[in-house]
Amino acid sequence: MLKTNFQHILLLSAAILLSVGISLGLIHGPGMHHAGVILRCGAIVFLALFALRRRSLTPWIFVAMVAGAELGFDAPVLATSLRVFSDIFLRLIKTIVAPLILATLVTGIAGHGDLKSVGRMGIKSLIYFEVVTTLALVIGLAAINLSHAGVGLTLPATTSGETVSAPPRTHWQEFLLHVFPENIAKSIAEGQILQVAVFAVFFGIALASLDEKKRTPVLHLFESLSEVMFKFTNVVMYFAPIGVGAAMAFTVGQMGLGVLVNLGKLLLTLYGALVGFGLLVLLPAALIFRVPVRRFLAAVGEPASIAFATSTSEAALPRAMESMEALGVPRRIVAFVIPAGYSFNLDGSTIYLAVASIFVAQAAGVHLSLGQQLLMMVTLMLTSKGVAGVPRAILVVLLATASTFHLPTEPIFVILGIDALADMARTTVNVVGNCLASVVVAKWEGEFGTEPISEVVLEGITE
């Protein structure tokens, strides 16, 4: 009891110091600035003391985010030079993703032996994905039409030096062809998660079709590989606070906090739509399928915080898979649903595309009828499938859509100024949505909490 009270005091003290420190930082004057820095640093110390008393990486990731934001605000030159540490973390994570998905999917399909359940699970996953994605588009469309965030925006005469080349239009035939790998080594090297998952499904089906004598040695190899990759994840996650802190420092140091003033209405619209999606879609879905909401929120906290700080869904994938398995989702379901969701269930990115595309039309003074907006949403639903889980990749889809509907690109370059802040929120919703999808499918299949949890996974979650 005393320990809990002391932790609450530390958190309350940190919150008060941080709030006062931020308030003083907004007041002009050298004395106020220095006082604000001291108070904010004091808040970080209290947060670090709180993290020391918890046996988890999640508090340290949060401390790193706050410390990184402070460093980016007060020492932007130093902060931007720290990007190398976030890049190191992302590179380590990317080495995990493809082998982890390959090993866990093959093990889940071939080890289970029931190929009918795999097909049933796939159909249920796709149904859930498309229903949720459609609702995400509707919410994003409603939010931007209510806020009119793009109306009255004065476009600058010259845009920033950042350039994004508009890709050729992607037809459904090209997307369908891109789903299937032509070279598994190439797919792994390029980080094509969906292609690796498709290969793993076919490989697992073929392996399951062999007699037990021939299947067992290969199955044991992939089981061992999956355990090794989870252990690899546990080791890499010790570097997560440094990588996350560096990512946050770079973002704030490069852009500054004042960027919220310029396009705050668009950000508020997006954040409001994302919150509305969580309350109106994700929460009811969790309640309908009787998901243990409190346990789920506790489990998803760490991968969500990684996604928020790095703006990269891929960085959170290994820990998300571990967290959901520890929550009670069987590994074969985790290995199938979450990777598939990275191509078919990007809820946050879908909302962002709806908001940003109509924002571009409003800023350009182009009136789109409801029918044209719905056609644009259908186009976005198709072109957003398979988008890479990396920062700002969704802008490529936005440019392609603008080209299709003959909208100017200038407003898109304006959006680039706040894209990092938008990316943090939409990536977090992507990760949370995919984690919930795995729990929903497990509940739908009646297999939630039916399998023992790997010791390696438990080790990583409790560290």
Report on this structure:
It is found in: Cell membrane. The chain crosses the membrane at residues 35-52, 59-82, 88-113, 125-146, 193-211, 232-250, 270-289, 351-370, 390-407. GO terms for molecular function: symporter activity. The chain is mainly α and 463 residues long. It folds into two domains: 2-80; 118-176 and 237-462, Sodium:dicarboxylate symporter (Proton glutamate symport protein), CATH 1.10.3860. Helix content is 78%, strand content 0%. It has helices spanning 2-25, 30-52, 58-74, 76-80, 83-112, 115-147, 172-179, 184-189, 193-208, 212-237, 240-255, 259-262, 264-288, 293-310, 313-327, 331-344, 347-363, 370-383, 394-404, 410-415, 419-444, 455-462. Helix 1 runs antiparallel to helix 2, helix 14 runs antiparallel to helix 21 and helix 15 (313-327) packs across helix 22. The radius of gyration is 23 Å and the shape is globular. The two termini are 22 Å apart. The model is unreliable at 156-168, 258-262 and 388-392 (pLDDT under 50).
Structural class: mainly alpha
Q: Any idea how many domains?
A: 2
Could you tell me how far the N terminus lies from the C terminus, measured between alpha carbons in angstroms? 22 Å
Tell me, what's the shape? globular
Number of strands: 0
Percent of residues in helices comes to over 70%
CATH fold-level topology of the largest domain: Proton glutamate symport protein
Q: Total helix count? A: 22
Q: Show unreliable segments.
A: 156-168, 258-262, 388-392
Let me know the CATH homologous superfamily of the largest domain.
Sodium:dicarboxylate symporter
SSE pattern, N- to C-terminal:
HHHHHHHHHHHHHHHHHHHHHH
* CATH class (first level) name of the largest domain: Mainly Alpha
Report mean pLDDT, rounded to a whole number.
78
CATH architecture of the largest domain: Orthogonal Bundle
Reported for the largest beta sheet, the result is:
none
Q: Approximately how much beta-strand content do the residues carry?
A: under 5%
Radius of gyration: 23 Å
Oligomeric grouping of the chains: single chain
